[in-house]
Design a protein that fits this description.
The chain is an alpha+beta fold. Helix content is 29%, strand content 24%.
Length: 175
């Protein structure tokens, strides 16, 4: 069994319900054991123009699948929840569900279909905040930084105007 971390997001429809239902759906798949889901986080869109805020979270699972097999299931789950991936669209689009494979054990992959660790983890508070919640002692095996360390670095980059500030707030599944 390998421990994997999945970033989750939705900015169309009931994001909280979508993330919870998608998490349950993943847990029903052979070879996947869902361990923990972070609190939901509400965040302004990053790197895209949209009026719709996102509901984000990070889930921890263990799996007997290979990374590409898990990615295939993540993409199938997105489609099951209405995710459309127009091939002609430029940049990021609003989406009913987004599932990103962030980490897969200590595996490093650089291919056309998959990059591990996910290349944008350290640049996204909507990933780092929930990741630090579910994996307090987590350390990126490439950089040696904890999620908290990456949060501090990213926040410092906002102050130095190296990155656009990101708005985020922790929520609750009960809201």
């Amino acid at each position: 069994m390998v421990k994997a971390y999945v970033g989750m997001g939705s900015n169309i429809g009931d994001g909280k319900r979508t993330l919870q239902d998608a998490w349950k759906s993943l847990g029903s798949r052979a070879g996947i054991d869902c361990q923990q889901l972070s609190s939901p986080y509400l965040s302004a869109p990053v790197g895209m123009a949209s009026q719709n805020w996102f509901t984000n979270g990070v889930g921890v699972l263990t799996t007997t699948l290979e990374p590409v097999e898990l990615l295939r299931i993540l993409l199938e789950t997105e489609a099951d929840f209405g995710r459309k991936r127009p091939t002609t669209a430029l940049g990021y689009q609003d989406r009913s569900l987004d599932l990103d494979l962030l980490y897969f054990g200590d595996t490093v992959v650089i291919s056309k279909e998959l990059t591990l660790p996910h290349p944008h983890v350290s640049k996204r508070l909507f990933v780092l905040e929930p990741l630090s919640e579910v994996a307090l002692s987590f350390t990126d095996h490439i950089t040696g930084l904890t999620a908290k360390d990456m949060i501090v670095r990213l926040q410092e980059s906002f102050v130095q105007d190296k990155n656009e500030k990101q708005e985020i707030s922790r929520s609750s599944w009960a809201d």
